[in-house]
Each structure stands twice: as structure tokens, then as C-alpha cells.
């Protein structure tokens, strides 16, 4: 098995302690099925070409340059050496600014995860940092230059090592208020809420990443295989009948109750009342039984006479 290749190597620094580390990609799309664009008539691959938007003439790579639009159709040109000079120099150091509670950062700021492992020497200092963070139940906020950009990184204990997740900047995260602006204030209660709680209770489980399949990849792989083997192509399944549009009815059917109304929850107060009623009913039941016995005995006596 080939050892993974590090995406970045440097040092992690906390206080006066530092140790060499390496970053490895934790999530990759390299295993996904990839397509090439072909010429339908010849079956040959199509090459991408940049052309001048006005003249329509092809533009060679050496003549391509970055530009920033300041007005409609007006650009300022940024030469490669100017862009390179503006990018901060990397000192290859992950400098920890602070230790924070593990759940303090909203997941919406998470960008891309990397495994952070000790690089050759410095394992003792690495393990000290890992175990210290585990004991204190904290994560670390650090900064460094990654891939020509200054990035903020969240570092957390993960198994035998650490996981470093690059974070989106505040200006990159859109406000949730805009997304939920038109959501009305509704209060759900009574049978609907009880049914929802029941359904959630029956669906409780645990997360297992291996149990989730990439259905798109599997479907495309099957399509490619079928075409190679000359088999009939997979057909799209007919979607199931739509669920009832009535929310309450849909909840009842989801809970396996059909059209029945949900039984009210049996609270302690209701249970006590029910017990009291049962106790009160016992003497009456005994009295009725005694009267019935007397009546029956009288009938027997009359028949005997």
C-alpha cells in the first residue's frame, strides 16, 4: 500500500513548543467517475480553448492574464509577478492563537478537513498537544498560509492524531436571517406534535458513514457497465404514489395509525384519576353482585315452592 502524500508540511506551534507536522487530505473526490467531452461525430476528445470575446481569435497561454472588472467592460490587468508579490509569504507554521470549547464554532464555517500528523521527529510534543486538548475538551484556533492564502484552521483531537479543518471567513458565510426571513412564526402542539415525536422516536439511530451509498455514482457505473457489455440500459423506476397533502393525515399514516386519532398521552395525574375511579367502582360492583345473588336466590326459592 502506497503511503499518502502530504499536501503541506510545516510546524505547529503552541507557546514555546513546536513540532513538525504534515497535512493529508481527509476527503477527496478523486474516486468519482469522471467524464471527458467528445465530438459526437468523430468520437474524439474536445480541447478547451480560450478565445477573445470581441475578435473571436484564440488566445495563447502566454497572452492570458488576470483582470479585475472595475466597470462594465473596463478592467485593470494584474500581472503574475504582481499577484505573487501580494500573496503573504508562508513561514510554514501553524500558530495556535487560542484554545476554545469544541462546540463553540458553528458548523456553517467548516470548509475542508485535513488529517494532521507528526512528521518524522517531534512525536512526543505532538502527542502532548493531542492528549492535553482531549483532557481539557478543547479545540485550537490556528493560522497559516495554505495554498497561497492565509487560512484560519480549527484543530481537534481525532483518533490517534488531530484533524485540521479550514474555516470559511465571515464574509463568505451568508446570513441565515436572509434565508429564513419569510418563515412565519408557527406554534405546533397537540396531536400533531405528539405524532411527530412518536415518528422521531421510532427512527432514532446512530451515524454510520459506510451505510450511505452514493446512488448517483452507482447508477452511472451501472450505466457504463451496461453499455460496455451491450446489455439493456437501466430504466428509471416509477416514483411511488404521492403522500396525502393533509399534514395531520400524513403524520397519522407515518405513525401507522391510518385515519385514527392519536391516543392522548397518559400523564401521572390522569393515571391517578383513573385509579381512583376504579377503586370507587369496586364497592358499587360488589353491591350489584350481592343484589344479583339475592335476586337469583329468591327466584330459585319461588320455583322450589
UniProtKB/TrEMBL annotation:
Gene Ontology terms for molecular function: double-stranded DNA binding
Question: Ku domain location, by residue?
Answer: 56-185
- The biased composition feature labelled Low complexity covers 277-305
Q: Would you say which domain of life the source belongs to?
A: Bacteria
What segment(s) does the record annotate as region Disordered? 235-305
Q: Which CDD domains match?
A: KU_like
Q: Pfam families annotated for this entry?
A: Ku (PF02735)
Q: How does it assemble?
A: Homodimer. Interacts with LigD.
The record's listing under HAMAP family reads: Prokaryotic_Ku
> What role is this protein assigned?
With LigD forms a non-homologous end joining (NHEJ) DNA repair enzyme, which repairs dsDNA breaks with reduced fidelity. Binds linear dsDNA with 5'- and 3'- overhangs but not closed circular dsDNA nor ssDNA. Recruits and stimulates the ligase activity of LigD.
Q: Which family does it belong to?
A: Belongs to the prokaryotic Ku family.
What name does this protein carry?
A: Non-homologous end joining protein Ku
Instruction: Tell me what organism the protein belongs to.
Output: Rhizobium metallidurans
Q: Which gene encodes it?
A: ku
